[in-house]
Write a structure and sequence with these properties.
The protein is built from 13 helices and 23 strands. It is of the alpha/beta class and 404 residues long. It folds into 2 domains: 173 residues, Flavin prenyltransferase-like (Rossmann fold, 3-Layer(aba) Sandwich), CATH 3.40.50; 215 residues, 3-Layer(aba) Sandwich (Rossmann fold). The structure holds cytidine-5'-triphosphate. Cytidine-5'-triphosphate (CTP) binds next to helix 11 and strand 18.
Length: 404
């Protein structure tokens, strides 16, 4: 069965020659079992008639904010839809959406919609490449809207290049893929720590480690895609989450990460501690750059607070904590000891002995250890896939705790 079955889809059509493909798009959506409400801008009606589209969608097509019968409720429509698809999207409407100008029914519904939004631009190649257009595309993506990439080929102008609207089959395939994804973390609040911490020695030097933050950022993206509301406390990492709904709090030191984690934890359903927190920090931080002097230099280090252990001691029923252990020897025993000591529910063990696992590589090979002595072993896989396995474990832990 298609994941579009019984889904409510608003299709917004704007004034491009590619609007003729909208007829096929409506037909394919309807065939997949979706209920389709078509909205058109005035310009779109010059390319394809509302009658064609209302016949195919079996619903009246809306072309204006007002009709003779009254006002079209854009707020209600925005809330009704499971997805809003704008195909084709012209440069003009793109700019309106980016700037929040609601002078037609489509733009008004766009601003009121809470559902995922997909947009399939259609333009001539030079228009598509123009920084004004690209800037608006980036802005829409920064709002969390999904770009359906343009195709390459012959354009209405006779030129050949990028700018064609994606084919209706491709648009339907992307929608089906999106709707088929698990949304099993909807309503869950997940706190994630990630990246290294830098502990200052003086204004230019620090004690740090090689953590890239990849695993934690992959977890944040995956959890957000599955519907969770995610707060990511991220140490100095070159990476940022790509899912716009992730709330990212940037920190430098273990103490800053600790303060933020403690502040956010009471509201969280789960804390996933993927950060490689520096265990020690310099006891004194010099105000000025330290000059070299003598043959030796000593830096006295003092212990940092343990974030995972502190959260573990404050854990309330219903909250779960998942930690990480990076070990080089006696791996499973060491990891299990950390799990118990820090009052975690699950610990993700990665061994530095495994090729393709560890810091700054795209893959990881992990084992999940649980409080009840159960464990799960996984093969080497991309960190995005490891993130899904860890989140599946979180879902199982919640299910178990809610049945106790
Ligand atoms: N952790 C933390 N705060 C710290 C140290 C560690 O939250 N100050 C978390 C890590 O994010 C990880 C887990 O605790 O989830 C285990 O970290 P690790 O550094 O391997 O364990 P330690 O207890 O510091 O043990 P050791 O370094 O001696 O192996």
């Amino acid at each position: 069965m298609s994941s579009l079955q019984n889904k409510k889809i608003i299709l917004g059509i704007t004034g491009s020659i590619a609007a003729y493909k909208a007829a096929q798009l409506v037909r394919l959506l309807a065939k997949s079992g979706a209920e389709v409400q078509v909205l058109m801008t005035d310009a779109a009606t010059g390319f394809i008639t509302p009658l064609t589209l209302s016949t195919l969608s079996k619903r009246p097509v809306l072309t204006g904010i007002h009709t003779e019968e009254g006002w079209n409720n854009h707020v209600e429509l925005g809330l009704w839809a499971d997805a809003l698809v704008i195909a084709p999207l012209t440069a003009t409407t793109l700019a309106k959406l980016s700037m929040g100008i609601a002078d037609n029914i489509l733009a008004a519904v766009y601003l009121s919609a809470r559902c995922p939004v997909f947009f399939a631009p259609a333009m001539d190649l030079d228009m598509w490449k123009h920084p004004a257009v690209q800037g608006h595309v980036e802005r829409l993506q920064s709002f969390g809207n999904h770009l359906i990439p343009v195709g390459y080929g012959e354009l209405a102008s006779g030129l050949t290049g990028e700018g064609r609207m994606a084919e209706p089959e491709e648009i339907v395939r992307l929608l089906e893929e999106f709707l088929a994804k698990k949304q099993d973390l909807t309503g869950k609040k997940i706190l994630i720590t990630a990246g290294p911490t830098y502990e200052p020695i003086d204004p230019v030097r620090f004690v740090g480690n090689r953590s890239s933050g990849r695993m934690g950022v992959a977890l944040a993206n995956a959890a957000a895609r599955r519907g969770a509301s995610v707060t990511l406390i991220l140490g100095p990492s070159k990476l940022s989450p790509t899912e716009p709904s992730v709330e990212t709090i940037r920190v430098e030191t273990a103490q800053q990460m600790y303060d933020q984690a403690l502040r956010c934890f009471p509201a969280a359903d789960a804390a996933i501690m993927a950060a490689a927190v520096a265990d020690y920090r310099p006891a004194e931080v010099a105000d000025e750059k330290i000059k070299k002097a003598g043959e030796e230099m000593n830096i006295r280090l003092v212990k940092n607070p343990d974030i995972a252990a502190t959260l573990g001691s404050r854990k309330q029923p219903g909250q779960i904590i998942i930690g990480f252990a990076l070990e080089t020897n006696n791996e499973a025993d060491n990891a299990r000891e950390k799990l118990l000591k820090k009052n975690m529910d699950c610990i993700v063990l990665n061994s530095l002995r495994d090729a393709g696992a560890g810091f700054d590589v795209p893959t990881n090979r992990v084992m999940l250890l649980f409080k009840d002595n159960n464990s799960l072993h996984f093969e080497l896989k991309h960190k995005d896939a490891v993130a899904e396995d860890i989140l599946d474990a979180a879902v199982r832990l919640w299910n178990v705790s809610s049945t106790i």
